[in-house]
Amino acid sequence: MNRTTKINNRALNAIREFISMESFGGILLLFTTILALIVANIESVASIYHSFWKSDFGFVFEGFNATLTMQEWVNDVLMAIFFLSIGLEIKKEMLIGNLASVKKAAFPIIAAFGGMILPICIYLGINFGSEYTHGFGIPMATDIAFALGIILLLGKKVPIELKIFLVTLAVVDDLGAIVIIALFYSGGIEISYLLSAIFVFLILFLLNKFGVKSIIAYVIGGIFLWYFVHHSGIHATIAGVLLAFTIPLKMEILSRSPLIRLEHVLNPLSAYFIMPIFAFANAGVTIGGEFVVNSITIGVFLGLVVGKPLGIFLFTFLSEKFGIAKKHENLSWLHILGAGFLGGVGFTMSIFIATLTFGGSLLVEAKITIMASSLAATIIGVLFFRIVLFRRANKN
Predict the structure, then answer these.
(1) pLDDT per residue over 111-125, tens digit each?
(2) How many CA atoms within 13 Å lie on the side-chain side of 70?
(3) N or C: the chain end with fewer CB closer than 10 Å?
(4) What SS3 state is found at 55?
(5) Minimal CA–CA distance to 147: which of 174, 123, 120?
(6) Where are the domains of the chain?
């Protein structure tokens, strides 16, 4: 067995491990989401729930203020660690995974672009000229944990190639969301903090170039990077992605590479702790009074439920027809359409972008719409697989 084959086998095993972890993480995510909704709508505990997440926690030491609300600790600190794990996955996929070659990567990359572009176009088309246009990023994201959790529940009839396609699509989708957040969902830039962040990033980059393998060194640098990015006006979670791209991945000692070791620590932490905590902190909306159907809710719903599957299917179909990319021989176009429906499960990243975009009643409406859209996409996707794909497979 040559070196390339060994690397490919390791990459495939890592993807299978990731799928299994994210699948169970999706079930746990669903549980905490339901729990948050129940708690937020029980009158006797709802006020405690909301006041807890708004309460301050931290310390002030000689002018150094490390105090945030509990929700900010989740959305800015824990989610930065989550974005670090995403960044590690993206880097690994680019070097040794499904994004390592143009031929292998083209099809899911094009699918991801279609699944981002069409929902954005639908949202902007509905909200053109309004004050809500900046919410265009909300319907562009796919929640890989939920999507793979649904795939897990569908059983072994779903081919492994479709799971890998969905994982790769979601990785590119996450990268697109990261770029959008960095470009359009950051505040006014503080130059001094930005320059400090760049300086720390360059130090981390040099540590990589000089072969430093100590994870502790990168973690310490990452803490400083987070602090400067947080105060620069760029959203703090971007620090996690920047840090990820400085972590070494050495081909010759793959299993001992800092990136692989850190990823093995962070993946279960993200799947089983950070994402459920994020869901519990952000999904608890009090459903009371009259729900307003407006251009935000229509744009988000149609973007996720209609734009996602159409974008994924049309872009990949046209790419194969024009010879740009080719789908795997074990996958049918019905498989791709089914994956497109599951791509409409936005949840985590969609809610995250919504919290960066809106506040007050608009944020509540956006969150409710995201959850309703994700539920609709789930129902459509499951029915499509069970009625169309599985019945068709049984006939054959």
Answers:
(1) 999 999 999 999 999
(2) 12
(3) C
(4) coil
(5) 174
(6) 3-186+235-395
pLDDT for 84 equals: 92
Please state which architecture CATH assigns to domain 3-186+235-395: Up-down Bundle (1.20)
pLDDT at 15: 59
Residue 56: helix, strand or coil by DSSP?
Answer: strand
At 250 the pLDDT is 75
Burial of 295 (C-beta count, 10 Å sphere; 0-12/13-18/19+): middle
Mean pLDDT of 146-164: 79
| Distance, CA of 345 to chain centre | 11
pTM over 0.85? The answer is: no
SS3 content of the chain, % helix, strand, coil (to 5): 75, 0, 20
Instruction: Report whether pLDDT(155) > 90.
Output: no
Q: How far is CA 166 from CA 335, 337, 368, 371, in A?
A: 10, 11, 25, 20
If DSSP codes are grouped into helix, strand and coil, which group holds residue 86?
Answer: helix
DSSP assignments along 96-107, one per residue:
HSTTSSHHHHHH
